[in-house]
Amino acid sequence: MQFKEATDKWNQLTIADDRMFSMVMEDEQICLELLRRIFPKLPIRQVKRVAIQKQVNTPLDARTIRFDVYVRDDRQRTYVIEMRVANRHNLPYWLRYYQSQMDQELLHPGEGDEKLRERSTYVIFFCDFDYYKRGLPEYDFEWRCLQDLELPAGTRQLLIVFNARAKDFRNKIGIEGFLRLMHNQVTPGDQLVERISQKMMRIKQDPERRRNFMKYELDLIDARSEGVKKELKLQPRC
Asked: Structure pTM?
């Protein structure tokens, strides 16, 4: 029963699953095209570094996180791309923490501020919920002067939240196909969507990836089962 449960979960994975998303983004050309659609005005010729499920080096007593996708382009701009399905009502705090961890990853002890001066950073969350409840397909945030909103702080940081539940994609037509794919809807003629769909099919046919996924899921099921048993043992008897 447990094996069938894990098998069904593998076969039903979509791009909205963070593990599938990470595996697909290993393809540098797909990752590059997605970034170009997110930033149509940003000249991105190539991605020079793509790491998935990247763990950030933090102090031993700090909470560690894993970036779904960590990317650097040909101009040393750095991007973290995350997939979020469940709304746990804490999105702004994770945006804040991810941004701080990106700087932690860029600037090592003893280094000056040169890297921060040279490298713009972008935190991008693809969400299957509209956290800000404005119906927008995309929400962009940066530091600005409250007395003069035309004046940016100049930190070279940008936070982007995509809303896959949007009804009107307005001028974000380039990313619409990907957001619809989060609901397993394939947009005909969208080359990026077609490439991602083909990549997912190849991933699901890969015996090594399937084996690793199955082992992880079965170990997780066993751990949960063991936790339930221990909890039952600790409960007082009437």
From this structure: 0.88
